[in-house]
């Protein structure tokens, strides 16, 4: 955030309005040239300022409603100046933008030391763009704020340009942290547990949306909130599941890891661990309730990556609403009904790549159900808002493995009108039925270069280069299912297995790769896999 720079380029009516909105490792791009049209491709290329060589990005997606191109550049370097060039095929139109990614070194001004307490910590004095206020434990004090069920919150942040680091927060009646309508806030290396109160009339059920971090946005953009390297786990009470009657019928109702209401977007949520135990599952690990809007969670121009997420009766990541230039990558999700949900995506595009999922379940012991789908994509809005934003699914490993000797249910995606699936590994222990289903025959959908069992319900020509087989050949196929093994060999394809060097090279999303073409799935043979959860800490499934 220090040194954040966004330059707009709109030199003429012909060239149109253009902007680049950065985070640490990404740029959200928007361009509205006068000659924009669905049949005209907008190519994007970029380079670090001062370098001669250009790199190709994935072409931008054209939204005919707004007559603008939108898309993202990914895997950039933090704190770096970039030049971006956009070109419109079949025309002479082009434009250039300069922008700088966020710097990971935040400038520190005042330091506030926090002692252990049973009272709410109120942070009300803002820092400055060049001097963040840092709140961290007093030397020699573990800085445990235990509300002991007497305070609504452990920490209330009502200021901007703030860093909260290294606190242990537990026992809040509502949520561990309340973040007000602020901007430029970093929450990192904190441990949050045992929050929330019981829903009246439903013993043992947690109140809906009580959260580890509960934020109330003002709908303004951008917010620039960073949530990183935290453990958010074991709410005091659990959520209902899909086969249990609760305050919302049989829809899950209960606590969350992160809830951001009416947020404008521009969040980075990375390297966090969300986990719990039976009887204390989350509703969603992260999300809100305005799913059928152009807002919702996580707003726009947001990155969600390298998180360890488990124990959710609804969604691991509920990215539903606008999803304008939202990027979700390298997350591990397990024991969730839907691992990553994008219903609805009303603006788009949203990019989902290099994620790994384990077991999907909808209720205790129910892993055989068709409902155990991994990614839910675009369903019709009952209020009539047609979800038409573009959804990209690249290089994900989506599984439903055998667990405890029992067969698991279906793995795959339910989709809507505008989905592009490339280089994904879709595998479930029960191969009957489709792995891509529900309205998948739409001609706007594009499914190819995937490795899968089951059936693909797609338009004619789907999976022309795909590989259908009963079971993928993993490098450590003899290992039992255990989440902690995912980083030590379970989901790499075996040498010479179908799917190696069989993917399509996707600019910005597939590289680097070791063979003639990228491998299918989230892991590339010969390269290390992603780290899930807080950096420098070992996470084991409870």
Strand content: 35-45%
- Can you summarize the main beta sheet? 16 strands, parallel
Radius of gyration: 23 Å
Termini separation comes to 35 Å
Shape: globular
The secondary-structure class comes to mainly beta
Percentage of residues in helical conformation: under 10%
Number of helices: 0
Low-pLDDT residue intervals, each spanning 5 or more residues: 2-13, 368-374, 380-385, 403-412
How many distinct beta strands?
44
Describe this structure in words.
- The chain has about 550 residues and is mostly beta strands.
- It contains no helices and 44 strands.
- It has a 16-stranded parallel beta sheet that branches. A twelve-stranded parallel beta sheet has the order 9-11-14-17-20-23-27-30-32-35-38-41, with no helix packed on it.
- The two termini are about 35 Å apart.
- The model is unreliable at about 1-15, about 370-375, about 380-385 and about 405-410 (pLDDT under 50).
């Amino acid at each position: 955030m220090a040194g954040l720079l966004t330059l707009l380029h709109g030199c003429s009516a012909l060239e149109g309005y253009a902007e680049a909105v950065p985070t640490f490792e990404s740029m959200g791009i928007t361009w509205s040239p006068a000659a924009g049209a669905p049949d005209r491709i907008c190519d994007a290329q970029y380079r670090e300022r001062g370098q001669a060589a250009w790199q190709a990005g994935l072409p931008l997606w054209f939204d005919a409603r707004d007559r603008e191109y939108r898309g993202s550049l990914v895997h950039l370097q933090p704190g770096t100046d970039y030049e971006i060039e956009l070109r419109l095929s079949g025309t002479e139109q082009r434009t250039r933008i300069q922008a700088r990614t966020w710097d990971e070194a935040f400038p520190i001004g005042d330091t506030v030391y926090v002692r252990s307490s049973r009272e709410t910590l109120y942070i009300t004095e803002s820092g400055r763009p060049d001097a963040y206020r840092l709140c961290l434990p007093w030397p020699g004090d573990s800085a445990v704020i235990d509300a002991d069920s007497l305070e609504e919150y452990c920490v209330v942040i009502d200021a901007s340009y703030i860093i909260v680091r290294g606190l242990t927060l537990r026992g809040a009646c509502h949520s561990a942290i309340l973040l007000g309508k602020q901007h430029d806030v970093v929450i990192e290396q904190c441990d949050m547990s045992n929050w929330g109160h019981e829903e009246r009339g439903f013993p043992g059920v947690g109140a809906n949306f009580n959260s580890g971090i509960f934020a109330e946005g003002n709908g303004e953009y951008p917010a620039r909130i960073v949530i990183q390297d935290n453990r958010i786990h074991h709410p005091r009470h659990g959520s209902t599941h899909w086969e249990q009657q609760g305050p919302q019928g049989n829809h899950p109702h209960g606590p969350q890891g992160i809830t951001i209401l009416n947020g404008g977007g521009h969040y980075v949520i990375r390297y966090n661990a969300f986990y719990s135990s039976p009887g204390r599952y989350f509703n969603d690990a992260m999300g809100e309730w305005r799913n059928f809007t152009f807002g919702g969670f996580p707003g726009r121009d947001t990155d969600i990556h390298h998180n360890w997420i488990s124990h959710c009766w609804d969604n691991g990541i509920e990215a539903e609403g606008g999803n304008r230039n939202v990027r979700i990558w390298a997350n591990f999700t397990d024991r969730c009904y839907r691992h990553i949900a994008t219903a609805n995506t009303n603006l788009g595009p949203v990019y989902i790549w290099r994620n790994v999922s384990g077991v999907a379940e909808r209720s205790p012991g129910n892993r055989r159900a068709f409902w155990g789908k991994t990614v839910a994509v675009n369903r019709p809005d009952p209020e009539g808002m047609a979800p038409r934003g573009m959804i990209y699914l690249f290089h994900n490993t989506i599984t439903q493995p055998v667990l405890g000797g029992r067969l698991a249910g279906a793995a795959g995606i339910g989709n809507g009108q505008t989905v592009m699936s490339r280089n994904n590994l879709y595998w479930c222990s029960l191969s009957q039925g489709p792995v891509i289903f529900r309205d998948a025959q739409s001609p706007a959908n594009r499914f190819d270069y995937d490795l899968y069992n089951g059936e693909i319900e797609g338009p004619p020509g789907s999976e022309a280069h795909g590989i259908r087989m009963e079971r993928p050949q993993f490098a450590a196929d003899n290992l039992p299912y255990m989440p902690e093994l995912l980083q030590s060999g379970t989901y790499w394809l075996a040498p010479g297995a179908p799917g190696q060097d069989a993917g399509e090279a996707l600019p910005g999303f597939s590289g680097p790769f070791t063979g003639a073409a990228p491998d299918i799935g989230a892991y590339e043979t010969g390269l290390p896999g992603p780290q899930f959860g807080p950096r420098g800490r070992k996470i084991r499934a409870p």
